[in-house]
Design brief:
- The chain has one domain: OB fold (Dihydrolipoamide Acetyltransferase, E2P) (Beta Barrel), CATH 2.40.50.
- The protein is built from two helices and six strands.
- It has a five-stranded mixed beta barrel with strand order 1-2-3-5-4.
- The N and C termini lie far apart (about 60 Å).
């Protein structure tokens, strides 16, 4: 009721006012935050990209690995001239709005592109502490790929 008058649509508008805070995406990390989370930082050229789709609940994930020819190691030790980095994107396939949670990585590297990769190996990667204990290199969530213009 406003000024003594009933406003029938007001209850319908309340979710629109409060939903943006519920559905907010994770803010991109600053360079300092990325460097703090990363166990490894490498600069390299993407040689190939491999991906597969899988369904988890009502999300469809595109799990991706990029093969990167290392040009420079800025943090950590990387053996060999190639490193394989993991990241993902996902799309809601259910009805209605998706539940709160993470968005896809961005930006995602392209074949032939040179990027700086902020990586986590056997450590917290900005998304999970439990799912990165296998010796692989996860891109730091959400913006751990920084394209380099040459």
């Amino acid at each position: 009721m406003i000024n003594g008058k009933t406003i029938p649509f007001l209850p319908a508008l309340l979710p629109l006012v409060f939903l943006p805070s519920i559905w907010a995406a994770k803010a991109q990390s600053s360079k300092e935050q990325l460097e703090k989370i990363a166990t490894h930082v490498v600069v390299g050229k993407v040689q190939a990209i491999y991906s597969h789709k899988e369904r988890e609940g009502r999300f469809e994930y595109d799990r991706t690995v990029a093969e990167v020819k290392v040009e420079k190691v800025e943090k950590g030790k990387v053996s060999g001239g190639l490193v394989y980095v993991r990241y993902w994107s996902r799309e809601w396939k259910g009805l209605g709005l998706p539940p709160p949670g993470g968005q896809s990585y961005g930006p995602q590297p392209k074949k032939g592109q040179t990027c700086r990769f902020y990586l986590a190996c056997n450590a917290y990667d900005g998304w999970s502490k439990d799912q990165n204990q296998d010796g692989g290199y996860n891109v730091v969530y959400v913006n751990g790929v920084q394209p380099i213009e040459k």
